[in-house]
Design goal:
By secondary structure, the protein is of the alpha+beta class. It has three domains: 95 residues; 33 residues, no CATH class; 79 residues, SH3 type barrels. Strands 6-5-4-3-7 form a five-stranded antiparallel beta sheet, with helices on one face.
Length: 241
Amino acid sequence: MCEGERDRLTEPDGPAGHERMPPFLDASPSLCCDHECLIMERSGIRNWLKVRMITGFFVTVPAVATAWILWIFWSRIDDIFGPMYERAFGRPVPGLGFMTAVTVIFLMGALARNVVGRRVLGWADAVLERLPVFGRLYPSVKMLVDAFSPERRSGFKAVVLVQHPREGGWAFGFVTSEVVVEAPTGKQEMNTVFVPTNNLYLGDVILVPRADVLHTGLSVEEGIRVILSAGTVTPSRLPRF
């Protein structure tokens, strides 16, 4: 740097007599500010992308999984009945095996809705439960499927809170019936409450005094969603009336 330039940089700046800073030193605070703003902007973009990706994942995966399960069901059922129709018609008929399965399910449902059909199905259940290996698996699978059937859900009368398994700890339960217990101290009105312990298809059946049952104000469908979601959709305040 020449002597003249050094004099211009160090000459007094204004009436206060401050020395003028070199240009590269004047620009350093603004450069730092721009750098921090750039970092914050990039972090904001990453967070924006992250939130959208996570949201898209949880929106897309259930739809894709449902479509995949239905496709597997369609393909496997069609593979079972397809060869039979191929021999009958001389060529493959896609989808006809699936429609046959749907028709069989419909007819079984219609059969189970009348008295004679229920007796026939009850006799068939008894036969299946006596089979050596099949009989050990069939009751568990049937219980699992029945847990999500409309008949099972309609048996739930109300969603309640009960102190279970110990006093002071509250658990969600479903009232299934009302019972009068004739104890030595006298009659006592009780509620039969089903407390799920494994999603919805397994749990404890307990008798609770009616006065100790706290009604939540939730519908049965809302209570089932609370159980299946592991409590993540529980309302922030209960009871809700």
